Automatic annotation (TrEMBL):
Major localization listed first in the record, in broad terms: membrane
Compartments where found: Membrane
Keyword 4Fe-4S: no
The protein's name in its UniProt record: Wall-associated receptor kinase galacturonan-binding domain-containing protein
Organism phylogeny: Eukaryota, Viridiplantae, Streptophyta, Embryophyta, Tracheophyta
Amino acid sequence: MFNFLWLSLLVLVAVSAAAASTAKPGCQSKCGDLTVPYPFGIGIGTNCSISSWYDINCNTTFNPPKPFLATTNHEIIDISDKEIRIKNSVAARCYTETGKLTRQNPISISLTVTPYSFSEKNKFTVVGCDDLAVIIGSSGRNFTSGCLSVCSDTEDMNDGFCTGIGCCQTPIPKGLKTFASALGSLNNHTRVWPFDPCGYAFVGDQDVFQFRTSDFTDQSFQNRTIENVPIVIDWAIGNLSCSEAKKSNEFACLQKSVCVDSDTGLGGIRCNCSTGYEGNPYLSPGCTASAVPANMDTPAMEQKKDVVALPRIPSSQ
């Protein structure tokens, strides 16, 4: 009987957790496989988001439909309480055996004037044995970095290591708003062409990308990276601090929630439910009491106890 009650309680918790990612009442909650929580909202100008910066365009010409940030037109892979992951872009330069350039595409992405910035969870990565790349960007001040990736044979490299031999990485600063990448080659790949005809550069989630020596001969590397290695974007509400936002008429954090200043250095806030409460802190009525008290024991914990837990009897006054 107790296990049944516990299972029922877990169902209630699951329902409550789902509520934390609820869309605004009357608004579409999913686009394809992506659940879109308020303050984001599906539709352009539908009043389903907290402001137009958080509108999600659900493109139904795809099957299943695909979600895009309406203001930047980047495809969204995931939305969490502080980050968005978007589909990547990869720069490439490919050569013939004699060093003639056969294909090139640079990359540049701008989040200027939006409430978004590139997360420091990303790294600028170059893959190739005859390649150097520079990344130029702005985070309120100019930023320039780059790295050199060289090798003479695939035996020089080890899968999983991106330390300058076949693959190199460099960090990007927190709060980066825009970047462009220039990719070049030392010898147009003439000395490494049999096993490495192309060089690549991209900004992406450092925890997802894993270098493999087979990347050099994998003709699908560029598309595979675009699909599988997202760019991590930090998001916040507005550009005021919590202390400033609390004085405004449009303070985003509702009841039983706490305001958290964005740590990007660009201003803006996020809202979290207070301890012991759950729900969507941006959506009326705000956060509500948790279905399960924080200190409640699970059945497994109860079984470890040497005594049977008895119900508490109120003391007489």
